[in-house]
Specification:
The chain is α+β, with helices and mostly antiparallel strands and 635 residues long. The protein folds into four domains: 207 residues, no CATH class; 161 residues, Glycosyltransferase; 97 residues, Immunoglobulin-like (Sandwich); 109 residues, no CATH class. The protein has 17 helices and 22 strands. The strands form three sheets. A seven-stranded antiparallel β-sheet has the order 1-5-6-7-13-9-10. A six-stranded mixed beta barrel has the order 15-16-20-19-17-22. Helix 13 runs antiparallel to helix 14. The radius of gyration is 25 Å and the shape is globular. The two termini are 49 Å apart. The protein binds beta-L-arabinofuranose and zinc ion. The site of beta-L-arabinofuranose has 8 residues, from loops. Pfam families: Beta-AFase-like_GH127_cat, Glyco_hydro127C, Glyco_hydro127M. InterPro entries: 6-hairpin_glycosidase_sf, Beta-AFase-like, Beta-AFase-like_GH127_C, Beta-AFase-like_GH127_cat, Beta-AFase-like_GH127_middle. This is Glycoside hydrolase family 127 protein.
Length: 635
Amino acid sequence: MPASTRRSSLPITDVVIDDAFWAPRRETVRTATLPQQEHMLRTGGQIEALAHAWKPGDPNEPHVFWESDVAKWIEAASYSLATHPDAALERRVDEVIEALAGAQQEDGYLNTYFTVVRPGERFTDLRDAHELYVAGHLIEAGVAHHAATGKTTLLGIVRRLADLIDREFAPGGAAEGGYDGHEEIELALVKLYRATGERRYLDLAARLIDARGTQPFYFELEAQRRGTPGYFGHVFPDRDAHPQRFREYNQSHLPVREQREVVGHAVRAMYLYSAMADLAQELDDAALRESCERLWDDLTGTKLYVTGGLGADPSIEGFAGPYELPDASGYAETCAAIGLVLWAKRMALLTGEGRYIDVLERALYNAVLSGASADGVCYFYGNPLASDGSVERKEWFGVACCPPNFARLTQSLEYYAYAQGDHEAVVDLFVAGTARFRFDETAVGLRVSTEYPHDGAVRIEIEADAESEFILAVRLPEWARQGAVLRVVGEPLDVGTVLDGGYVRLSRRWSPGDVVELELPMEPRRIWADPRVTSTVGRVALHRGPLVFCLEGVDHDAPLDAISLPRGASFAVARDDALGVDVLVGDGVADEPSGDLYPERPLGRRPIPVRAVPYAAWNNRGRSSMTVWVREAVA
Ligand code: FUB
Ligand code: ZN
């Protein structure tokens, strides 16, 4: 097993994103999404609840994870402040932090539900009641706020909370041997460790991960001690009859190093595996890494939608069996795709392999970006791959985990675009702008120019005061291996000679102004459905670069399921200015009704122009049917 790499993300302030694809979308998040979400959190009661004025009998009882939505909003706003200082937004964030400070108890405890709704019951329902999940999101917010503003207001609050959790989960503490029913705090504690240098936060994360799935099962002991079915008892009334299924639901069925299949609730799984990858890297833990790699292969080999969505079964918001990937009835929660981005980045940092970023890119440009409307104020919770026209984005949800998760991810794209290793500058995503790396005492900048994903030309220029020797590693996506063209300082170079672990790795003494050019082949491509996935047998999905395309009913005068694409038909790229995206146009055929319900002769077919829009851009023109997988007509 190779040792973990020492790669890390660049600090957010060392990256500038300034391109035609991402910059306008992030600006929409900054100017429309963040204010709308703040409004929803204020009018929905999430922020008001922090005053702890709620009393039994009052309306709008605080929900177990309300603070997590507030925390994700603070985190998103903090990333925005890091790149776009905004005194008014900073003041509003400070106000919410003051409310959190007021809600914190003397001993550091911070959780509204267990303070005003169920006082005296702290840490008695770890399986269902989201106490550590909330704490995790608060910790992530505290770290982000500190990195963005340098202030320690929220960081101080979450450190006191983490210290209390450390005491309570230590031997002799009230929750000794316990762990989180909805994983999240583990990855947050790793961030807190990295931000503060306090080793005990890393150790606590490792303790929680190591305790998970050991026997006797903590959640069952806790339920016996409590004597009640727990917060989700009414949602899962058959839980006691199916203990194994519900252990799998929160990935506590086996010690994590023995887990081989991705099971259960998808967001929980992604957050858990992210923390496992973090710890594998921090602790150079080979068994943890092996487990992550096996789980990755299971996910990407049998349970991942072509959009990068995951978690097909709505009844558990989680994974169904291998190849059970129904397109219309699949769930594919936005948060799960976001979780996959978190995990994939960590796997790439851990292993140095670009294949993880290939999957990250698939999820990011498709299943994550579809999570919000073009105007940034309506959201998908589930992201199915086909719709009869009844699915549309909504302004908000009773359980509003996805909207602020979308905001925090898109506002922190800087962390995903590059990585820094030992004398190695890594370009993971093709995003125009700049990045600053530090090799010993030398600062080296990269200026990336590209219209990706609408064009495959990527130009990377070295910006530095002096010559510098380092490796420039540029990811070459798997789909671009055939036909990619590389020029290094004007000289053509066969990519095959420098391809290593999914990256074009160029080791040399670079001079200021040196340029690397990469041309990625951007012809539209087809991907064929696996026949083991029953809902899409015989269908193809159109791709261009990292984008997955879909057909919308609004563009076609035949039912989408009646349309097929002749195998040889090619597609051209056209601009849709209204949607602000490139679309694919080509020729298809549509089955014609014969007049008889059950005709005894083959159906007639008529040519039909086909127009495919990027999956992430669908449902921006009102309600419409949609399909990613289109029937293929083989002559
Ligand atoms: O339970 C917290 C979040 O709410 C989960 O991650 C989502 O699946 C939604 O249920
Ligand atoms: Zn969600």
